[in-house]
Structures are given as C-alpha cells and as structure tokens.
Amino acid sequence: MRIGIVGAGAVGGFLAGHLARAGTEVALLARGPHLAALRERGLTVESQGQRWTVQVPASDRASDLGEMDAVVVTAKAPALPAIAAAIAPMLGPDTPVICAMNGIPWWYDHGRAGAAADRTIARLDPDGAIWRGIGPQRAIGCVVDCPAQVVEPGLVRHVAPRPGALTLGEPKGGTSERMTRLAAVIEASGMKAPMVDDIRAALWSKLFVNISRSPLGVLTGATERELAADPDTLSVTLAIMHEAQAVARAHGIEVAIDVERQSNPQNRSEHRSSMLQDWDLGRPMEIDGIVRVVQDFARAAGVPTPTLDVVATLLVAKARGAGIYAG
C-alpha cells in the first residue's frame, strides 16, 4: 500500500517514521527546512525509549510523488485550501484522504443526520475549495492521539508513554474495505488505529480536550498539567467542556465527561498543546476549527457558551495582535 503524507511536522513525521520502519511504502509532501532535513539526514523518530532513522522519499511537488493508495493530511487546518489543490497528482479515482488534525473537519455535514444540507462548513471552507478539491466521498474521519513535537527539522519526539493512535471512521458510519485496509497497515507499524461507527462522537470527545485546554495554553503559556493543577484554570477548562458538550448534544451527539479524571493533574502530561506550539513558532493556529466553529454551532442551536466566548475573544485578540489570524 502506497501512503502519501502531507506535512512533515510532529504528527506527519511520527506516522511516516512508523510506517517506513514497518516496510510500508511512504512518501512525504513537505517543504522548507523539513524537506531539506529529510533529504540530507532522513527522518528520525524518538518514541517510548526507541530511536530510529528512516529514508523516506520527499518532495515539495505532489507530481514528483505520484498517485497514492491513501493520502493522510497532517498539516494544520489553515493550510487546507491550498493543500486541496496541490495534492491532485497524488489522488487516483478512489484514493481516500484522511485529514489527521484537531477540531471540526470540513466534511462534518457530509452524511450527518440532522444536517441542513450535505455541504462544507462555511467557517472552515468559505469558498468550497476543500470540498471541490478533495471531495467528501474521499474523506475518512480521523481523531489524532499522537502527542509529539518537532525537536528540529527531521527529528520528531513522541512525548507520551502510550503508542500513538489514529482513530478512523467513515463519515456516514459503518465500516469499509478501504478503512479496514488502512487501519491494518497503521496497526502493523506499531501504532493504534481503532475503527468506530460514529466518528463524530469520537471527534467531539477529543474536541472537548482541545477546546478547553489549547486556547488557555496560548493565553497563559501553561502546559496541560499546569492548567489542571491550578484550581482557577481548571474551573475554566471544565466550564468550557460542559458548554461544548451542550453544543454536541444539540447535534444529537452525547459524549460523557469524566470530571474526576479531567481534574487530576496526574492524568495530564507536561505537553505543550499543538496550538501552543504554533503560537511559540509564530504560526497560524487552528482557531476556526477548534474554537470559532463551535461558537457558530452554538449560536445556530441557541446554546449559550459564555465561558468559551470570553476565552475565544481573548485568543482571537492575541492572535490578531501577533498578525497570525485574520478571521
């Protein structure tokens, strides 16, 4: 199985390193210092006490890599419209595309019960470039659990004791041959790839974590464990979780929150969230996919989100002031 990975950052490098080590044919669409490092030194991964280096074909032109059996996009959501056009040479007639990123995905309303229409999400894909360029029929849903960071270009460090995981699910539910095949390849690499019938429930469960911690991490500079250790920031994270839970419920999705577990600092790592890492590097953050689209859903459903609204206002102001958010 030929797997193309778009983005050589923390998640993309982590996944590519595992697949290549297991013998899967992998190619990376990358650019800048990451591409230069891959060509010069290869890709090195540190995970669970192991360190290995693999040589992976890489280019900044999709036409150099050719048609793939599956494409996994691990770049951040703000880059998706440009990526949708750029990856066309990697897509065969039936190539699935897995967007392995945080937040609500652009295909969220594709086949969703209760959706007003089978269409893209305006906040995430305002001119429909992703919907047209990739196509919802290619989408396989994905929830990422790979706490990792780029130590330097070409070197990715996994910062959790558990194996990395990509939870997969078809937007319309059920299983499929294409998803089963991809999951088997990922599992053979040493990562986990559970398949679920309701990918939206899995997405919301992860989103409860992202939306309640990541913005606060950017505003305070605190790690996830530090946010739980401080009673004041903990109360804010729990309030946002419950507000997001109410929004999900308005979509007919019920996801429980384990308050005791979420409140225990020992259940959190010293990991700096993906959004905080982007802030540290002066890169655009996934504000729309993690925060503002949930506000849109809330307003459409008449669900109040007062705590989220305050945090979102501060986050947007900070990002605009730094010149990395124009929304």
Kindly list the characteristics that best describe this protein:
single chain; 327 residues; alpha/beta; Rossmann fold; N-(1-d-carboxylethyl)-l-norvaline Dehydrogenase, domain 2; 2 domains; seven-stranded mixed sheet; four-stranded mixed sheet; 43% helix; 15% strand; globular
Structural overview:
The protein has 327 residues and is an alpha/beta fold. It folds into 2 domains: 196 residues, 3-Layer(aba) Sandwich (Rossmann fold); 121 residues, N-(1-d-carboxylethyl)-l-norvaline Dehydrogenase, domain 2 (Orthogonal Bundle). The protein is 43% helix and 15% strand. The strands form 2 sheets. A 7-stranded mixed sheet has the order 5-2-1-6-7-8-11. It has a 4-stranded mixed sheet with strand order 4-3-10-9. The chain is globular and about 50 Å long. The N and C termini lie far apart (39 Å).
Oligomer: single chain
How is the biggest beta sheet arranged?
Answer: 7 strands, mixed
SSE pattern, N- to C-terminal: EHEHEEEHEHEHEEEEHHHHHHHH
Unreliable stretches covering 5 or more consecutive residues = none
- Give the class from helix and strand content and strand pairing: alpha/beta
Strand proportion, as a percent range, falls in 15-25%
